[in-house]
Amino acid sequence: MKSTDIARIAGVSRSTVSRVINNYPNVPEETRERILEIIKQYNYVPDASARILAGIKNTTIGLFIIDIRPESNSKGRRIALSHYFSYLTGAIIEDAAKMGYRVLVTMINNSEMYKDVKQAFYNKTISGGIFIGQKSDDPIVKEIITAGYKVAIIDQSIESDKDIYSKCIVINSDNFSGAYNAIQYLINLKHSRIACITGELEKASALERLDGYKKALLDADIPVINSLIASEEFTENGGYRAVKKLLAREKPTAIFLGNDSMAIGAMKAIKEAGMKVPGDISIVGFDDVEISQYLNPPLTTVKMRLSEMASLAANSLITAIDKELNFSANYKVPVDLMIRESCTESK
Amino acid sequence: MKSTDIARIAGVSRSTVSRVINNYPNVPEETRERILEIIKQYNYVPDASARILAGIKNTTIGLFIIDIRPESNSKGRRIALSHYFSYLTGAIIEDAAKMGYRVLVTMINNSEMYKDVKQAFYNKTISGGIFIGQKSDDPIVKEIITAGYKVAIIDQSIESDKDIYSKCIVINSDNFSGAYNAIQYLINLKHSRIACITGELEKASALERLDGYKKALLDADIPVINSLIASEEFTENGGYRAVKKLLAREKPTAIFLGNDSMAIGAMKAIKEAGMKVPGDISIVGFDDVEISQYLNPPLTTVKMRLSEMASLAANSLITAIDKELNFSANYKVPVDLMIRESCTESK
DNA sequence: CTGAAAGCGCTTACAG
DNA sequence: CTGAAAGCGCTTACAG
Q1: What is the distance, to the nearest Å, from the Cα of residue B102 to the centroid of all Cα atoms in its chain?
Q2: Contacting A residues, span 313-342, partner chain B, CB-CB under 8 Å
Q3: Are residues A37 and A85 in the same domain?
Q4: With contact defined as beta carbons under 8 Å apart, do A172 and A156 qualify?
C-alpha cells in the first residue's frame, strides 16, 4: 500500500494525498476527511525512508553509550548497564518521544565499534546525537562536532577545547561543588585524614571531583596528601582494589569515592581489613544508585539529577534540530548531598 | 557529498561507485581501490534512506519496552528502568550490533504511545521488533504479527493463541520451574504455610510462577490456601502493600514474592510488623537484581538468564530478517535458584 | 484548490 | 567490465 493506491481509491492525485498527510491547509475539509478515512481503513503509513529522502525532517536522534571497561573486555562477559547509563537512557528516550523523536541507541564497548557512530551521522540515519560515557576530548566526538553535526555531550569539560565545545550542547553535573560539599561535610565531622579514590581521570567528572576535594581541603587549611589520593576504574572492583592498597599504607579516617559502586567495593575492603563503617572509617559515594539506601550502613552519597540532565540533553538537542539553529549551550546541573549513615564524627 | 561526486572525481559512473560500495565482484581491483581511496578521503557515506528506498536491506530493528505502571503515571514522576528492562536492553543492543544491526528503542509509558509502535513497522523504519514488558496477549502486538511483520516477544505464553504465536519468536524464562523449585526448597525447610504474592497477573510470567507455586504445594500434599495468595504490581510498593495486608490476616512462615523489588517491600513490611527475616518469616524473590546480594539478609531468589534471553531474541529475529524466512520459535530458558540467607528452617 | 512533473540519492537489471 | 536508465515512494514548487 502506497500513496498512489490511496490516491486512486480516493480519486485524487498523489499530491493531494501527500497534502493531507502533511497537514497542508489548502485542501477542503471534506476531501481531507475522506482521504483520512481511506488511509485509516487501509492502515496506510507513508514510507519513512521515502519521506526523508524527499525532504521531510528526520526525527530520529542517536544516543551513544560509550562503555569501554577493561574488566568487561578481558573476560568478554556481559555486564549490566550502570544505573547512570540506564537512567539517562530511559529518560532521554522518554523526553525525545514527548517531542516526537525516536532514539537509536548504540553501545560502544570497544574502539572498533566507533566507526558506527560516525556512520550514523554521515549517512543521515540520525539528525543529531547525544554522547554519554566518553573520555574527555574524545577525538571522534570532536570530529563529528567539527563536521557540523548537532551534538549534545554529557560529562565533558568545555575548558579543554572551547572552540569545539562552543559548537554543541554540553551538560555536566556540578561535580566540583558535589565533591567540595561532601568533603566539607566530612571536615565538619572533624575528619582531617580524608582519602580520595577517584574514577578514571580521563572522564571529566572524575577530574572535577578531585578538584573539589582538593579545594575543600585547602579552604580548611588541611594539606593535600598525595598518598591519600588514587584513581581506579569506576567499578566495585576498582573501589575494592584501590582501598585495599590504600589501607596497606595509610590510616585515613574517611574516604571519598568516585561513585557508589566504588563505595561498595570500598566497604568490602574495609570489612576485610577488620574495620567498621562508619566506626573506623567514614565513606561517601557519588551517584545515589538504588542500592545505596539498602547498604549496611546506608550510604551517604552525592546524588546527580539525572532526570534533569537527560531532559536538558534531549530538549536542547531536539530544539536545535527543529529550529535548524546552531544552538550551543553549557549547562551545569546541581547535585545533592544525601546524608545517610556511612559517616560519623572522627574520634 | 554524494555518489555522483565520487563518480566524477574517480572518472567513473555512479553505477561503478555503487558496485564497489556494495562489494560487487565485477569491478577490477585497481578501480575498486582507487574509488575506496576517494571515498575515504572525502568521508563519503551513502545516504541510508536512499539506500533503503533503492532496495538495500534495512538493518535496524525496534525494541519496545512496555512499562505502564499505575504508580509512575499517577505521580507523573520518572522512574528508573528496572534491572530486567535495562539488562535486556543493553544485551539486545550489543547482540544486534554484533550482527550489524542497530536498534531503535521505544518506551511505551502510556496507552497513547502505542501508535508509535505500529508506525515503526508500517513505515518501514525497522525491519522487525522485539517486545518486552507487554501484558499477555497484547492486541497491538498480535496485530503486528498478523500483518506479517517479524516479531520476537519476551514473556508471553504461547498457549493463549497458538495460531498467532506460532508466527513469531517467543522467549520465556522457565517461570514455572523457577517457582516450583523455590517452593520445593521452602518445603524442604519444613515450611507449610507459604504465601505467594505474585506480580500483575496480566503478565505471563506472573501466572506461570503462580502455577509453579501451586503445583509444588500439591505435589507435597500441602493444600493451596487462597488467603495466602495475592497479586500486586511488580514493585517495591506493591510488595509492601500486599505483605502488610497479608500479615494483618495470616501467619505465613514463608513468602514467595513476584520479584526482588516486591521482596524488598516485603522485608520492610515484615520489619514494621516487628518480625525478622528469616527468623520469623523466610523470603524468596525472583530476578536476582544487583541489590539482592547486599540486602540484610542477602536475598534468596530465582535468577533469570537475561543475557541468554536477549541473545535468543536478537539472534533469532535478525536471522529471520536476514534469511527472509518466516522463522518461528519458542524458547524456554532455564532459571537458577540463588540460595542466600533470607530463608531458614521453619520452627 | 489540484495535478503533472521534477527531484531526493541511491541500487540494479539491462545492454553492450 | 561499465554506463545509461528505470525505479524505489515520497514531497513540493510550479502552473493552472
Answers
A1: 17
A2: none
A3: no
A4: yes
Tell me: the pLDDT tens digits for B26-38? 899 999 999 999 9
Which A residues, 273 through 312, put their C-beta within 8 Å of a C-beta on chain B? 290-291, 294-296, 307
Q: Is the CB of B6 under 7 A from strand D?
A: no
Chain C nucleotides reached by a protein CB under 7 Å:
1-5, 7-13
Question: Is B339 part of a structural domain of the chain?
Answer: no
A6 touching B, CB under 8 A? no
Instruction: Quote the CA–CA distance of A267 and A282 in Å, as a whole number.
Output: 10
The CA–C1' separation of B324 and D5, in angstroms, is: 29
Q: Grid coordinates standing for B179?
A: 517457582
Q: What is the pTM of this model?
A: 0.94
Q: Do B60 and A103 touch (CB under 8 A)?
A: no
Residue in A78, A80, A87 closest to B80 by CB:
A87
> Which residues in chain A touch residue B125, judged by CB atoms under 8 angstroms apart?
48, 60, 102
List the domain range (segments joined by +) for residue B323. Answer: 60-174+306-334
- Residues in chain A with pLDDT < 70? 70-77
DSSP label of A133: S
Specify if B87 maps to a domain.
yes
User: Is A180 in a helix, a strand, or coil?
Assistant: helix
Amino acid identity, residue B337? L
Span A141-172, pLDDT tens digits:
999 999 999 999 999 999 989 999 999 999 99
Hey, what amino acid is at A181? N
Chain A: nearest CA to B346, how far in angstroms?
A: 26
Q: Are residues A42 and A78 in the same domain?
A: no
Chain A residues in contact with B52 (beta carbon < 8 A): 49
Distance separating alpha carbons of residues B5 and B25, to the nearest angstrom: 22
Residue B215: closest CA among B246, B243, B187: B187
Q: Do residues B191 and B272 share a domain?
A: yes
Half-sphere exposure of A198 (CA within 13 A, CB side): 24
- A210 and A329, same domain (yes or no): no
Cross-chain CB nearest to A119 (options B45, B50, B85): B45
- Tell me if chain B has a CB within 8 Å of the CB of A219: no
Chain B contact set for A122 (CB, 8 A): 43-45
Residue B228 C-alpha, separation from nearest chain A C-alpha, in angstroms: 27
What does pLDDT average to over chain A? 94
Over the stretch B267-325, which tens digit does the pLDDT of each residue have?
999 999 999 999 999 999 999 998 899 899 999 999 999 999 999 999 999 999 998 88
Answer for B14: CB within 7 Å of strand D: yes
The whole-angstrom separation of Cα A261 and Cα A239 is 7
Classify each residue of A206-218 as buried b or exposed e, where b means 16 or more C-beta atoms within 10 Å of its C-beta: bbbbbebbbbbbe
In a domain, A70, yes or no: yes
**Which residues lie closer than 8 Å to B151 by C-beta, 6 or more apart?**
B128, B129, B130, B131, B141, B144, B145, B168, B169, B317
Average pLDDT per block of 10 residues along chain B, 347 residues long: 94 95 93 95 96 96 90 62 94 95 94 89 96 95 95 94 95 98 98 96 94 98 97 93 96 96 96 96 95 93 97 96 87 98 93
CB B120 within 8 A of CB B97: no
CA of B68 vs chain A CAs: smallest distance (Å): 13
Cβ under 8 Å to A: B residues 111-150: 113, 116, 118-120, 122-125, 147
User: Does B166 share its domain with B311?
Assistant: yes
The β-bridge relationship of strands B300-304 and B282-287 is parallel
